[in-house]
Description:
Helix content is 17%, strand content 45%. By secondary structure, the chain is an alpha+beta fold. The mean pLDDT is 94.
Amino acid sequence: MEKTLPIWTLYQSPKDYPGQYVARRFEVTPVGGPRLTDEVYANKDVAAVRDWVQQEGRRFGVVPVKLERDPSDDPVVLESWI
């Protein structure tokens, strides 16, 4: 089984979820870059989305750490958790 590193990216009001905060999970493998999964969580409350990411991290056996957005990120990217 190939090991993967989960990364959750939080978005503020993306086109497919206007007016909501959204977390999408990506997977990084030793031989590939980030791959988008079909796991998505959306809520109007950013705190609820961050709580969900923390719970998901525990499911994967990690304690997610917040990374601030990079100025080159799409404007709807709020932050990432790795």
